[in-house]
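>> Question from a student workshop board

For tomorrow's exercise we were told to take the sequence and the ligand below, predict the bound structure, and bring the output to class. My setup keeps failing. Could a helper post the expected result so I can at least see what it should look like? The ligand is magnesium ion.
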Amino acid sequence: MEKKILNALKERISRQNWESWFLDFSVKKIENKHVVFEVGNIFIKDRLEQKFGKIISKVVRDFLGKDSSFEITYKEIKNDNLGSTKTDGPLIKKKPLLITPLNPKYTFQNLIVGEFNRFAYNVFLEASKNPGYYNPIFLYSGVGLGKTHLAQALGNYILETDPDMKVAYLTSEEFMNEMIISIKKGTTEEFREKYRKKADILIIDDIQFLIGKKAAQIELFHTFNAIHEAGKQIIICSDRTPQELKDFHSRMISRFQMGLIVKISKPSKYDLIRIGKKILELKETEISEEILEYLVQIYDTPRVLHGAILKLIAYKNLFGEMSLSIAQTLISNYKKETKSFEEQLITELAKMFDCSSEEILSSKRTKNISFARKIGMYFANKYLNLSTREIGKIFNKSHSSVVQNLKQIENSLKDGNLIIKNYLRELDKRIKRFAEGK
Ligand code: ADP
Ligand code: MG
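>> Workshop helper replied:
Here is what the output should look like for this input. Compare the format with yours to find the bug.
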């Protein structure tokens, strides 16, 4: 019977899905029309129930009758036998620790400190000098108030002062995705070792993403324990307090609470102006104090202020001018508009090159589309003053490929390429029209 049920299931499930999810799926027992299946871990269990629950239920009923039922159990992971077969041995780096690259602009120097974040700043600075002293650190605030910046500042500081330290920074979403991939590939041991054993400092950003993701929570819990026990630094960033992480297991919440909990509040208008000035300084451009005063009446977090300032800078670069009244018009359009300059740029490129926006943002490499992309990147850099990193984000491309593309266009322009020149001129015209709300 066991075999029959499994075979019937296999027939109804695509090969790819079978190989991804059912390889260690087995019937543990059948008792009174109730089938107990077993899988390797809770993550697969969750997934099978969500994605294939209906099919499984149907197959079970086909064999055992309408009133039959099933459940899926999993083999409990014991934390202490993970990797125990491997000796710790000499620390020869087999593979470098994969680290999400830190944004080099997110440093302590570039962070404005005021009443709103002074405590958090001091804790992070102290932790940079003495990793593991406050452990864990749980940082929370509303969105856009500087958590990621502060957490990465610690990472950047440590990498600079002690390049041998292995700093792992990643969002909880990235953590989960990597976990899923490792399960599919059968490399969970490596995945675990990477974070549990090789990281000296683990920063998990946006923990709230794991709400409702039980399996990833459990995996993170074990990782957390392993790192914490080894006395290595853990930092968790969240958009809410530990208690507000609804559905996280209480033992996990109490882990978060056993260290230091720090909060960033909303900056005052005065501090926002200082932050605005910092943003301008980093962009190597200026906007009058009067305009900044106006902006901080409307935008009350560093993130939205940052967005508004970028918009003004883009305009200033296109037209070579900026004034309070222009800023006011732009901002009022900005609030109404659903599109940003960057989005409009993609739209215009698609029109000019007779393709879709999706194609421009895809990884397609047809000549026409690659060319459109390069022109767009160059325009974003030279006309809208966006950094290569920002451009990478907009176009879904790696930093190095952006740099390479910019170089190519630069060289062609130097050689007097008129086609490119004309495309840029045309784009300039179109984006200006958009900026003026026409
Ligand atoms: P969060 O992670 O809390 O949502 P971010 O760290 O992404 O916020 O900050 C949003 C933007 O605002 C970033 O560009 C960041 O550099 C900037 N920013 C935030 N706080 C400050 C600050 N105190 N000084 C300077 N820039 C800041
Ligand atoms: Mg963030």
